[in-house]
Amino acid sequence: MKNRRFFIALIVFSLVGQIAWVVENMYFNVFIYKMFNASAKDISLMVEASAIAATLTTIFIGALSDRLGKRRIFMCLGYILWGVSILAFALVRLDVISAAVGSAAGAASIAVTVVIILDCIMTFFGSSANDAAYNAWLTDMTDRTNRGRAEGINSMMPLVAILIVFGCFMGFDLDKAESWTTIYIIIGGVVLLIGVLGFFIVDEPPAREKDELGYLGTILYGFRPSVIKKNPSLYLSLAAFIVFNISIQVFMPYLIIYYEKTLGMANYVLIFAPAIIAAAALTAVYGRFIDKHGFMGSVFPSLGMLSAGYVLLWLFPGVMKVEGAAMTVPVFIGSLLMLSGFLTGMAVFGAKIRNETPEAMAGRFQGLRIIAQVLVPGVVGPAIGAAVLKNAPTVINSDGTESFLPSNAIFIAALIVAAVLIAALIIALAVSKKHEERV
């Protein structure tokens, strides 16, 4: 019964948390692009600010949850406040802001600033609940025998969340402010309700022995040279995870805009959805493959799929110059490979990092995980993407304003980053084999 309760809580909290993150990571960009004509620089700034907020929050709240020996209260209360913060975005409309400042002039610029600030506030609650508490809880509740399975489920949720969000958003005209208001009310309300539900379905992990480090010592624990020296495999895994996520963040903030605006695929959801379903199913199964073959045996297939997806998305339609229906199949296959590599890669690295995390110290190490997953990639990746798109073509909107069009160059840039990671892992594998032969 407890095992069933655990997996129910895992699925519910992971899925709803990822739905909220999908709206932030993939649709806040669309929101400020469509509603306030945001530039690539604005989008990059928002992603970077959110990444910094997520990292600092996870470091401090993760350490606090370790000190207090509590996970459930941070998860459940955090989700409630997370939902409230999402509801606040329903008020970010040009008519509301114009009325508040008494003038329509510059209202769009003010709106972008407000969204960035609110995004940081929302990230604080979301990272407290999900990045810090939920991920520490998941580490505490699993072990080396089942982490691949748990991570397979956990890592497929971003794609399932994308599918749900895409499906729900199809019924909305995203060029209308009223649609965004409704979306934020729905998403915020669901996240809030899951926080309340959590008090009834989430079990507190077994009690852990408290150390004498103090709160500041707990915060700084993972940054100590002695701790790094004692856990080299953990820190090397985190370094590799940084490069993996930089590759993802080069293109991800611009992906939907690329499909819809650059490729002109108004029905991109219908093409993207089957790829998401297939990739999510593969990721769920891949978890058992990770448990059986370990990190090195499972990371290269993931990176291979990711790289192949990049190549196809770069080739079509840019290099191969195909249009219309002829473009659908290669874009679908490229998206499927990219998404499969992305999600299975997240599962591989997630299981590896949890396995290398010292026992009873999951909270204090979540800050390091978020640095590797969000902070560095969230700053470096979008900056690379923005640099690649610096001279991107533009389009004139119906209201006379100008917007940029992301190009397929973001995929070749992401591929270069992934190639660096593959080369580093091949070298690490060769060095490891030589060491074993000497021993």
Question: Could you characterize the architecture of this molecule?
Answer:
The protein has 439 residues and is mainly alpha-helical. It has one domain: Up-down Bundle (Growth Hormone, Chain: A), CATH 1.20.1250.20. The chain contains 15 helices and 2 strands. It has a two-stranded antiparallel ribbon. Strand 1 and strand 2 form a beta hairpin. The mean pLDDT is 87.
Main sheet overview: 2 strands, antiparallel
Query: What value does the average pLDDT take?
Result: 87
Task: Give the radius of gyration.
Answer: 21 Å
Tally of extended strands? 2
Number of helices: 15
Task: Report strand order across the widest sheet.
Answer: 1-2
Task: Flag low-confidence runs.
Answer: none
The first-to-last residue Cα distance is: 46 Å
User: Residue share in helices?
Assistant: over 70%
Strand content: under 5%
Instruction: Tell me the name of the CATH homologous superfamily.
Output: MFS general substrate transporter like domains
Helix/strand structural class = mainly alpha
C-alpha geometry: globular
Q: What is the CATH-assigned architecture?
A: Up-down Bundle
Sketch the topology as an H/E string, one letter per element.
HHHHHHHHHHHHHHEEH
Count of all domains? 1
What is the CATH class?
Answer: Mainly Alpha
**Which fold name fills CATH's third level, the topology?**
Growth Hormone, Chain: A
Features:
two-stranded antiparallel sheet, mainly alpha, 439 residues, Growth Hormone, Chain: A
